[in-house]
Amino acid sequence: MKTYLKILQRVLPYRQYALFHLLFNLLSVVFSLVSLAMVMPFLTLLFDKQKLVLQEPTFQWSAEYAIQTFYYQISQIIITQGKEKALLFICVVVSVVFLLKNLFLYLSKYTLSPIRNGVVRDLRRDLFQKITQLSLSYFSNEKKGDLMTRLTIDVQEVETGIISVLETTFREPITIITFLGAMFFISPSLTLFVFIVLPMSGFIIGRIGKTLKQKSHAAQQKLGNILSIIEETLSGLRVIKGFNAEGIQNARFGQENEAHYQIQTNMLRRRELSSPLAEFLSIVVVCIVLYFGGRLVLSGNTSLTAESFIGFMLIFSQILNPAKSFTNVFYNIQKALASVERIDQVLTAPISIQQQANAQHISQFTNQIEWRQVNFAYQDRQVLHDINIRLPKGKILALVGHSGAGKSTIADLLPRFYDVTSGGIIIDGTDIRQYNITDLRNLMGIVTQEPILFNDTVFNNIAFGKNEQVDMELVINAAKAANAHNFISQLPEGYHTNIGDRGTKLSGGERQRLTIARAILKNPAILILDEATSSLDTQSEKLVQAALHNLMQNRTTIVIAHRLSTIQNADEIVVLEKGQIIERGTHDSLLQNKQGIYQQLVAAQFGRQE
Ligand SMILES: Nc1ncnc2c1ncn2[C@@H]1O[C@H](COP(=O)(O)OP(=O)(O)O)[C@@H](O)[C@H]1O
Ligand SMILES: [Mg+2]
């Protein structure tokens, strides 16, 4: 029920449309009822049973008056122009009524479109916004494909659900109630039968729908897995082929695909059962009513005439349709509810990195950065132990150590990609958690081992993150400083060349120089270089190295590197092992300790380079 309300809540911004939708629906229902009721005078006329209404009825607000007036009009035509003209008159009126019914039906759909599409748009927007707000730690635990399913398929399911909700809440009940009212007007006793028999079939259908929601949940999850594998495979095709792992990947995919197939088939079979079952049950109901009604008419001792009985059955048959679609709608809602829950899980996921209510602004870095007694754990695993480092403005701090020692983690804490478990990071005397996050991140430029680029032009990739219009000249200057201008100029469309998904049309070194140009253009006070050169060959490393040298001018830099060349000039080198600082000093002072890890790292590197 709570989830059901959540769907309706999404419709709330579109309430004017919903109101009109309701109104038009009501009108179309009324006119379709009238169109059916018209059959009765038509029949009486054909069967020559028309009792003439010679006296004009006095006006009042009732169905009785409307009917009497209609009969009066027909009687007038029969008297003055004959029966054929009366027949023609009825046909014309029926056409007009149908025209109106369909016009209002169209208008009701017309007002429904902005609701259903609007809700989809809003959901996607909110989900996307939320994804960009969630902290990085969230994504270590979630599959990309699953998130994409939520953004696409689940949102679509909600759309179907919304239509269903609007229909069940408005259209179908209106139809059923007005039609039942009309039936009651014609024959109260027969309508009672309907009341007894219809709910019984409803109960049976409800039982089938019960498990549908869980099944739908499972199916969407499987679909998420499938998308995850597709995504991984597309981005890892090179490795998959290189390791001849096509078979393995196919098997993994096949397994998920098969599971999805099973659930989906199972679900569809159950679902498809609803329609034939509903139809059969309704026909049984119809037959029961026909039998009892027929007997009444045959006995001749009621006011129920053959024509009214046919009219009654006609209207009744029209109730069966909404009742049938009611069951469909019921299943759609079950599926939508499963999707709403999945969407809601993302929308309500806690954002672990929060800005304080009265966060301080910081526009300039003036003094120093300090990691003070920093401890940090990913989930339960502690990866940093009591880290204390001071980095004065304008200096270079180098972090070295074996892979997995915690170097990147120390760097990631600075822009608050993660928050420390205890201790704190202090910039210019204030804990970074007290700063405005946007301000804090504005101070920093980050170049990582894996260049992050977007499927866009060179220009837009360099100017990325700048809201205002950026001058071409500034971009070119940044590219020149990053040693990127030459290769960019040789691209087919220069700065307006699209670089493909994640920059696949460029070499590793070229990609890295683009990210450096981006950092230069941002002109940050604090620079974080996380193994920016380690994935490159020596030739491109030289170019990137020179670019980095330009970038580091007049900045405070944290550099993480394997290669000694980058860190020899550092003002302090911190050696990490298993999340702890085990040595620190300058290059020269560290080399003094012949037994030290730094010494070993240096030796290992020279060994490797030779
Ligand atoms: N998102 C994460 N979730 C859980 N553990 C992580 C995550 N990122 C890194 N780790 C773990 O934290 C430790 C330190 O990682 P990292 O700082 O990346 O090391 P380095 O950069 O020195 O190679 C490693 O043992 C790694 O397995
Ligand atoms: Mg690292």
Labels describing this entry:
single chain; 610 residues; alpha/beta; ABC transporter transmembrane region fold; 6-stranded mixed β-sheet; 4-stranded antiparallel β-sheet; binds adenosine-5'-diphosphate; binds magnesium ion
Question: What is Rg?
Answer: 37 Å
Shape: elongated
Which structural category fits the helices and strands?
Answer: alpha/beta
Can you count the beta strands? 10
Distance from first to last alpha carbon = 70 Å
* Widest sheet, order of strands: 6-7-8-3-9-10
Ligands bound to this protein structure = adenosine-5'-diphosphate, magnesium ion
The averaged pLDDT comes out at: 84
Low-pLDDT residue intervals, each spanning 5 or more residues: none
Number of helices: 22
| CATH class identity of the domain at 2-347 | Mainly Alpha
For the report, how would you describe the main beta sheet?
Answer: 6 strands, mixed
How would you describe the overall organization of this protein?
This protein is α/β, with parallel strands linked by helices and 610 residues long. The chain has a domain at 2-347: ABC transporter transmembrane region fold (Up-down Bundle), CATH 1.20.1560.10. The chain contains 22 helices and 10 strands. It has helices at residues 2-11, 15-37, 39-46, 63-81, 83-133, 136-141, 144-186, 188-209, 212-235, 237-242, 246-299, 306-347, 407-413, 437-442, 458-462, 472-481, 485-490, 508-522, 538-552, 564-567, 587-592, 597-609; strands at 368-378, 381-392, 396-401, 422-427, 430-431, 444-448, 526-530, 556-560, 572-577, 580-585. The strands form 2 sheets. A 6-stranded mixed beta sheet has the order 6-7-8-3-9-10, sandwiched between helices. A 4-stranded antiparallel beta sheet has the order 2-1-4-5, covered by helices on one side. A hairpin with a 2-residue loop joins β9 and β10 (580-585). α1 packs across α7 (144-186), α8 runs antiparallel to α11 (246-299) and α8 packs parallel to α12. The longest helix has 54 residues, at 246-299. It is elongated and about 120 Å long. The two termini are 70 Å apart. The mean pLDDT is 84. The site of magnesium ion has 3 residues, from α13.
